[in-house]
Each structure stands twice: as C-alpha cells, then as structure tokens.
Amino acid sequence: MASEYLEHKLRLLPDKPGCYLMKNAAGTIIYVGKAKNLKNRVRSYFKSHHEGKVAKMVSEVADFETIITATNKESFLLEITLIQKHQPHFNILLKEGTGYPYIKITNDRDPELKMVSTIENDGAYYFGPYPNATAAQETLQLLWKVYPLRRCHGHQGRPCLYYHLGQCLGACFKPVPRAEYERQIKAIKSFLNGNTAAITRELQQQMEVAAANLEFERAAELRDQLHYIKVTVEKQKIISNDQTPRDIFSWYVDKGWLSIQIFFIRQARLMKRIKRLFPIVDEPVEEITNFIIQFYQQANQLPPKEILVQAGLPNSEISEILGVPVRTPQRGEKKELVAMATENAQLSLDERFRLLAMDTKKTTGAMQEITDALGLPSGHTIEAFDHSHIQGTDPVSAMVVFVDGEPVKKLYRKYKLTTVINHADETASTKEVIRRRYTRLLKEGAPMPDIIMMDGGVIQMQAARDVLENELDLDIPVVGMVKNDHHKTADLLFGPQDDHINLDPRSQGFYLVQRIQDEVHRFAVTFHRSVRTKHSLSSRLDAIKGVGPRTRTKLMKEYGSINKIAQASVEDLRALGINEPTAQLIKVSLQKQAEVAKPSSHD
C-alpha cells in the first residue's frame, strides 16, 4: 500500500519511456529500472501483489524520481549507466551478474582492438556499453577483418597467423609506422561513431553476389553482419560516442518559477543529473545566466570542455567569464540532448505544481500528527523562520505562517537585518528577527503562535529560545527543521536536549514539515534576491559613465564583487585595459556609494 505522498506522485507519472529511481527514507537510491511507459511500470509496483525480493524492495520505497527519454532503447542504455554509477542494493540482488561490454582501442605503441567489461582511466578509446554482447562481438570480428591493428602479442620475430589472414599489421615481426595505426584508428572511430555507409554498401553488394551464386550460407552470414552493425553502432543520445566532457543546462519557466536541469556528460555517458526549482524575481535570462556563472564558483565544480544551453542567453559573455565554449546546438545529437533536458525540466516543474495543488486539499490531521509527535497540546498556528545572504551581503530573514496546515500568505513577514555586525552570524540573525517579531506582537496584544519552527539546527533553536525565555518571558515551543546531505527535509529537533523526533517520513505530518521548510526557504530567497537586485554588481556598474558591457565583464571576471572592485587601485583597474579617466570614475563612484549606503529595516 503506497503512502499518500507516493499516491500523489503516481498520479503525475508521464506516459513516456524513461528510467525510474526508487529511494528509501534516507534518500538513498535502492533500485533503478527502465520502462517503455513510466506511468504503467512504476504504478505496477504499488498496485500489484509481489513476493520475495520485489516485495521487500517495494516495502522500503519512500520516494522515487524519473528521467524521461526519447525512446525505449535510450532508457535501456541510461539504466545501465545509472546502475553502474549508483550500484543500488536491489539491482545487485535482482540483476545479479548483469554486465555490458565495451569495444576498446588500447593506448599502446602498437594499439589493439578488443572487448572489455569496464572502463579504466588509461587514455584508451572506449565505445559502448553494448546491451547486445553477441552483436558487439560480431562487429569486433568484422572490424578485425576490415581495419586490422595488432592481434598477436607483438615482437615475436616472425609473422603470426593473424598477419597471414590479413587481421594484423605485422607488429609481431616489424615496426609499424604510427601513421598507419592513426589511419586505421581514425577509420574505426568513424565506423563506431555511426559512419557505416561505405562498409554497409560493400557488405550489401557481397550479399547480393553470394545470393546470386546460390551461396546461401555466405549470404546469410553477410546478412547477419549487416544486422550486427545496425544494432551495435546505431547512434545514441544518452550514451554518445563523442568523448568530450560537457554540461547541458536547460530550463522551463512557468508561474514565476524556474526549473533547471543540468546533465553531466562524461566518458560519453550521462553520469549525473541535477534538478533545481526556485522562484524568480528578475527576467528569466538574467536569472539563468547568473545561475550558470555562480554554479561554477562552487568548490570542486570545475567547468567542462564545453557547455550546451538553450537559445536566448548571452553565450559569448558567459563563455568569456567561465573560460570555456558555451554553445546552443542547432541540429543533431546535441540539440536533441538539450531538448530532452528541457522536457525533463518541464516535467519536474509541472509535478511540483500539481503536488502542491493536491497537498492543499490533504492537510487534515497533519498538524495533529506534528503536535502528537512533539508531545504538545493540539495547536493551529506555526510560524517558521529562515535567513538568506550571499557571503554575508544583504542579510535578510523571512517568516511564513501556516494555520491548520495551510499557508496564510497575508501573514508572511520580511525582515532586513540591521543590527548584525557579522552578517553570516546565524545566532545574531536569529536573535534579531525573533526579538523584533514577538516584541511587536506583545505591544499589539496579538495572539502568539502555537509552535515556532527554525530552518536550521541547534544554533538557531538555542538563539530563539534565549530571546523568548530570557528577554520576552514567553513560553512558545521552538522546533528545528533539519535537512539531510541532499538538502531535503529529514527530521525535527525538539526538547531540552534538542533530540531527534524521528517523524514518520511517510506521514502527512512529515510532508507538512517539508512544505513549511520549502516555503520559508523560497520566501527568504525570493526576498533576498529582490534586495540583492537593487544592489547588484551590474546595476551599480552600469550607472557609472564609461562602463559598458565589455568593461563590466572584465570587472566581474577579475573581482567578482563590488567590495573587491572598490578596494582595487586605479593602477589595478588600468591593468585590465580600462582607460585612466574611467578607472578614476569607477573608484570615486564606488567609494561614494559606500559612504552614502544606509541600512534599512522592514517589519
């Protein structure tokens, strides 16, 4: 029996081919599968009777996600990649022994063409994996005959049997020029990349001649070789034979929200997918451009050799800042990959909206589940807080209010923090916003909430309790909402020792906490973006006479923030190719802005 949360998601499954990833309560992927029709296949796990290992797997499923593909074959190949990457527990149990071969050109002085089961970081060329091992083996046999490399161990001092058969270039008894190897390798790579027209025509002609001469066994052998070429070398979108490391950014915008999908193509395979959903304040193009640039400012997030994006972005400006080519493909496999990422972005956002719409009708008892789990009397109102800043700049806090499990947006509040010296100080930020909020309620004689929730951990909880108990003499339960390593709702903290409550992750109460945490984070980030936009680097630089897009790009790439530009000397600015009058004007303007900037508050 699926939980109500899973029932919601099952209704939203697309009627398309793709892969599904089953997760347990900890967010760990426990099973990966493929389907011609995701809706029918995934629903069958929860709507049919199962026994043994399948029943055990289904009993542990707390969530799932999907990746849609253009064809069923692509879903099969993607499944291989996902299983190899995540090694899910139940795939090991249910598909024990499954393996798929690759065709490899070794990186030796005398290279060899062979079949292997794993990829190593050895500088060799790999093609695959191939679900049809027989077809891959037959294709390898064909390549040995048509494009010979080295078949023997080499340097034997005499010609080997393969040399006499025309399947070895003679490394066994003579030096083979590198140019000859390079010519053969180029032809093999072209063949395995799908350029099979020439050899297909030749085999077709041979088959027709054999049939005309009544050599039916020979004709059947050639027919089978043509079939093996088709099923082995056929172009793929998910597993490409292009070895270039690339990231694909695609997006979908609706109702003020932005859904971004990032596909990481490595070793010719889709190695990772990241999903991001957030509300937007600026124009979508500005939001997406900033997201891509900031994405690669994170630790250990190095740009690939190439970035592919949808049309409409300032590709050259992004490329100049990141130092890698940023392209919008116009045709072929790359364009289809971008389109597939876009379709997944739309699916994610549509699912999000529909889940939220369903959930607003399913809150009965959720508040009661939370108070029961906390050991508190029945209540109605929860006020939740979160902070937002970027490297300490423009710190803000936000509060959302849920009454009987429903958000009441007219009661939401925004706070620009004004007394925090170190803007990244979570304790000081929490104390200021709690003090301002509940001092005001006391003055107005307004009712207090039944529960206060802090998005964070023990630090925020202790800071809030300190103000409530020691400054305002209020007894309001303070609960912490904590996230796991995947930044998803994990549990509640409560009590004198800040204990974990272990709320049932399949319960309505847990889902309500998840909605509260997502909503307060969304509200805080949205407010912070609106504040930051007014003080953004671009707008402040654009206001300076003589600073155009080219100069702005140079400054952004070199310094990254207003403070660092303001600290730079005129000589440093001139070193970037900026003329002296403009450099002096930049210096004076930014210093003057810093002098007149005043903190403001909103309550």
TrEMBL record:
UniProt cross-references to NCBIfam families, sorted A to Z: uvrC
UniProt-annotated location(s): Cytoplasm
Protein's name according to its UniProt entry: UvrABC system protein C
Domain of life: Bacteria
Record keyword DNA damage present: yes
Main location: cytoplasm
UniProt xrefs under Gene3D superfamilies: 5' to 3' exonuclease, C-terminal subdomain, GIY-YIG endonuclease, UVR domain, UvrC, RNAse H endonuclease domain
Reported function: The UvrABC repair system catalyzes the recognition and processing of DNA lesions. UvrC both incises the 5' and 3' sides of the lesion. The N-terminal half is responsible for the 3' incision and the C-terminal half is responsible for the 5' incision.
GO biological process terms, semicolon-separated: nucleotide-excision repair; SOS response
Residue span(s) of domain UvrC family homology region profile: 248-468
Source organism of this protein record: Limosilactobacillus equigenerosi DSM 18793 = JCM 14505
GO molecular function: DNA binding; excinuclease ABC activity
Gene symbol of the encoding locus: uvrC
